[in-house]
Amino acid sequence: MPKNIIIFFGPPGSGKGTQAELLARKTGLPTGQAGWKKISTGDLLRAEIAAKTTLGKNVEKYLKTGKLVPDQMTIKLMENSLKQKAAGFIFDGFPRNSRQLKALLAILESLLKKNDQVRAIEVAVSDKEVKERLGLRRMCACGAVYHLKYNPPIAEGICDICHQELFTRNDDKPKVIAHRLKVYHQDGKPLLDYWQKQGKLIKINGEQPIKKIHEEIVEKLRGLKVI
Ligand code: ADP
Ligand code: ADP
Ligand code: ZN
């Protein structure tokens, strides 16, 4: 069975998490079988912070101010996540700079077989739209993402899927958002160039309804026999 890798890429607020989650649910297999696994470094870091682990305490200040946490930390999270049994992996928020990309490619070299595929999906959204979206974002610890206007939960403040209480991210504030966008444009550009040059980049217009984007992604990945 091939082990394909799908990497979501795009500015904060572009809908990477939303689409990664939808795709992971779609490609998931019944329990007992190893389905696709989603690896969201942001979710993993927030879980460490919530659990007050040593790693969590060390990274809190970076997330709060919208800076990237030191590469060795997210690279370690990525390495550990890739040890899970899975039919394939969906990355959300990793790699985010050239050094992380290099580390991932080195690992994939030993992990992947000849016919396994790696594809990057760029969810393209303007900075203006990002700012509109992030103010009304609500998150669940289970990975589900909501928006008070565009994708509200059925019951106010409660996750549709796991019924936990939703929370607002403390980095979804105008000043921190502006900094995260700057980091994205600076550090992310070489990655886009890399995927493009390799012929591995799938570009999606992220300014469409959530469902439409999901369908477009599924169609393109099916066409390429990635899923
Ligand atoms: P968004 O895509 O909305 O910026 P994420 O949940 O992906 O949100 O990331 C939130 C924060 O977590 C980032 O601003 C950064 O501090 C940290 N982070 C997540 N992924 C990485 C990564 N690959 N490298 C470094 N820092 C990361
Ligand atoms: P990212 O992981 O790229 O930071 P999210 O998936 O968390 O982005 O989405 C950011 C916010 O925008 C969330 O509140 C989400 O519900 C909302 N959102 C995601 N995709 C769309 C879309 N296509 N149209 C409108 N809102 C969206
Ligand atoms: Zn939930």
Task: Report on this structure.
- The chain has helices at residues 16-27, 41-50, 54-65, 71-81, 98-111, 127-135, 174-198, 210-223; strands spanning 4-9, 36-40, 88-92, 118-124, 137-139, 145-147, 201-205.
- The chain has 227 residues and is α/β, with parallel strands linked by helices.
- The mean pLDDT is 93.
- Residues 12-13, 16, 41-42, 45, 62-63, 66-69, 74, 93-94, 96, 100, 171, 180 line the site of one adenosine-5'-diphosphate.
Mean pLDDT: 93
As a percent range, the share of strand residues is: 5-15%
The main β sheet shows up as: 5 strands, parallel
- State the separation between the terminal residues, measured CA to CA: 11 Å
Structural class: alpha/beta
Each distinct ligand: adenosine-5'-diphosphate, zinc ion
* Total beta strand runs: 7
Helix segment tally: 8
Shape: globular
The largest beta-sheet arranges its strands as 2-3-1-4-7
Helix content: 40-55%
What's the alpha carbon Rg, rounded to whole Å? 17 Å
* Poorly predicted regions: none
**H-E order:** EHEHHHEHEHEEHEH
Gist of the model:
With 227 residues, this protein is an alpha/beta fold. 47% of the residues lie in helices and 15% in strands.
